[in-house]
Description:
Strand content: 35-45%
Shape: globular
Oligomer: single chain
Radius of gyration: 17 Å
Largest sheet: 4 strands, mixed
Distance between the termini: 59 Å
Helix content: 25-40%
Amino acid sequence: xxxxxxxxxxxxxxxxxxxxxxxxxxxxxxxxxxxxxxxxxxxxxxxxxxxxxxxxxxxxxxxxxxxxxxxxxxxxxxxxxxxxxxxxxxxxxxxxxxxxxxxxxxxxxxxxxxxxxxxxxxxxxxxxxxxxxxxxxxxxxxxxxxxxxxx
Length: 151
């Protein structure tokens, strides 16, 4: 009789999923954030409207409701997973934030605000960057910017 360790099997599965693209082949070693959200379908819609992400992979439950998705923002992948206990309040207590480097941070910042984000700091220049910070409807902080010069 095979022995299964639920925690080990889940960790192994998560590691395998994060190392493979939707084509099911190893492309390269990378690290991708995995965000807990209260509603995956709403999160997909928000991230598509705010950042123009592309859905690479989606896992649905037996009722057809998305519960895990791999998204790509200009080739930078991240994952979202349904966690009914996740809320902006629980996320806000953490020390995690994302930074997105793009050629036109002003445009993406406005787009994210229009999609439902709240401004934390406006786009401005300082410390060699043009960058602004916002919080999405799921409580995650995003800095959107670009370096002004190379070090």
